[in-house]
Design a protein that fits this description.
The complex is a heterodimer of chains A (111) and B (116).
Chain A (H helix, E strand, L loop, with lengths): L3 E4 L2 E5 L4 E7 L3 E9 L5 E8 L4 E4 L2 E6 L4 E6 L8 E9 L5 E3 L3 E6 L1
Parallel strand pairs in A: 2-11
Antiparallel strand pairs in A: 1-3, 3-8, 4-5, 4-9, 6-7, 7-8, 9-10, 9-11
Chain B lengths: L3 E4 L2 E4 L5 E7 L5 E8 L3 E10 L2 E4 L6 E7 L2 E6 L8 E8 L11 E2 L3 E5 L1
Classes of the chains: A mainly beta (111), B mainly beta (116).
């Protein structure tokens, strides 16, 4: 099974609402990253949180990391239509020397 | 897209034919990666390179080979394409590792490959 698994697989909300998506992983990590992918495009890095950090903010994005539960969440506040995309978490696994991506959450913002 | 181009962007080929995809970067980053993206599987690493002529396998390397003769170019070759290799292929780059961990990866626009 995947090292990183996002939940939910799909999320549909109204514009202006907050969107929360979660990522769980299995092994110890050095850092966890979130990426966005618009339809038909490559992935774009959003935010990185290190294993010794618990929360990080970037604009309307808030990421939390709970290493005891091996989970992370990405909160997008005041959503906009342009936030419609797939969101992936990626974990850097200690000793693996590579990023491992989850399967993504498909977020749809309805006007 | 952080100075990364992929060519071709779309390709249709027949089973058994060789296919080469090219990734070109202008960032002078040390690390380059090839991923494939398929529904239900997310992104899976095929091969990566940590320097000129230095490459290693990822989790789905069977049927693929790579070469990196220059810092800026990373080639992915399907020696004899199969229908199971129909996918979207992404190249990514990252700079020197920081404190032994892998920092941000920057992705190219992708190549859609259809093997008939």
């Amino acid at each position: 099974s995947q090292q990183g698994e996002e939940d939910p697989q799909a999320l549909s909300i109204q514009e202006g609402e907050n969107a929360t998506m979660n990522c769980s992983y299995k092994t110890s990590i050095n850092n966890l990253q979130w990426y966005r992918q618009n339809s038909g495009r490559g992935l774009v890095h959003l935010i990185l949180i290190r294993s010794n950090e618990r929360e990080k903010h970037s604009g309307r994005l808030r990421v939390t990391l709970d290493t005891s539960k091996k989970s992370s969440s990405l909160l997008i506040t005041a959503s906009r239509a342009a936030d419609t995309a797939s969101y992936f978490c990626a974990t850097y696994v200690q000793g693996a020397q590579k990023l491992v991506f989850g399967q993504g959450t498909r977020l749809t913002i309805n006007p | 897209d952080a100075g990364i181009t992929q060519s071709p962007r779309h390709k249709v080929t027949e089973t058994g034919t060789p296919v080469t995809l090219r990734c070109h970067q202008t960032e002078n980053h040390r690390y380059m990666y090839w991923y494939r993206q398929d529904p239900g599987h997310g992104l899976r690493l095929i091969h990566y390179s940590y320097g000129v002529k230095d490459t290693d396998k990822g989790e789905v390397s069977d049927g693929y080979s790579v070469s990196r003769s220059k810092t800026e170019d990373f080639l992915l070759t399907l020696e004899s394409a199969t229908s199971s290799q129909t996918s979207v292929y992404f190249c990514a780059i990252s700079p020197e590792w920081f404190y032994g961990t892998q920092e941000t990866q920057y992705f190219g626009p992708g190549t859609r490959l259809l093997v008939l």
